[in-house]
Q: What sequence folds into this?
């Protein structure tokens, strides 16, 4: 294939992609308008078109079929109740729904983590539980001075550290929640902990 022919092929592919994108935006705007008008059939059309994408996002984070189904249902119920939350001029409907699915999944993860921690705390209160040295060390992360030092970190460092130490997330889980590579999460946590050690000294010994 000559250079000219290759360039023409690329141009045709680009035009096709743009045409598909324009058609999708027009269809999304029409669906949004029908939802605002209270057209129940429109909700079914949106679900058939984008339901699998919403479910895939939820399952990717939750890894449990029933929870992913619950989140998917919640996303579409929220769309039906407040269709005006979606603005076609700001992006594709699929992106809006997938972002909502991500947010709802993260909220559910946090809720499940909080519930599990309450159950563990109640179990410990009702027994003669003795914390391990590692758990005693972890308590130092919650001290007021450490909290103040954490607030001085960049959000890109503070968020991963909070998920890892407060919620007990693995590097992989933190990466899934934030939507970044696992290596990036490790780098941000190492960078943040280095800054904390510099400002807190031995107070973080045994933490990481």
A:
């Amino acid at each position: 294939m000559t250079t000219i022919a290759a360039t023409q092929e690329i141009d045709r592919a680009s035009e096709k992609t743009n045409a598909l994108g324009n058609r999708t935006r027009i269809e999304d705007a029409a669906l949004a308008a029908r939802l605002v008008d209270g057209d129940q059939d429109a909700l079914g059309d949106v679900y058939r078109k984008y339901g699998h994408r919403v479910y895939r996002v939820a399952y990717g984070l939750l890894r449990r079929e029933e929870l992913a189904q619950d989140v998917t249902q919640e996303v579409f119920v929220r769309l039906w109740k407040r269709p005006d939350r979606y603005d076609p001029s700001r992006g594709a409907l699929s992106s809006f729904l997938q972002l909502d699915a991500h947010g709802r999944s993260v909220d559910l993860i946090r809720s499940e983590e909080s519930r599990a921690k309450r159950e563990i705390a109640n179990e410990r209160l009702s027994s003669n539980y003795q914390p391990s040295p590692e758990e005693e060390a972890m308590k130092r992360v919650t001290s007021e001075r450490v909290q103040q030092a954490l607030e001085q970190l960049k959000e890109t460092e503070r968020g991963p550290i909070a998920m890892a130490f407060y919620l007990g997330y693995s590097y992989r889980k933190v990466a899934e929640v934030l939507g970044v590579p696992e290596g990036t999460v490790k780098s941000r946590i190492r960078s943040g902990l280095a800054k904390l050690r510099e400002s807190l000294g031995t107070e973080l010994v045994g933490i990481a």
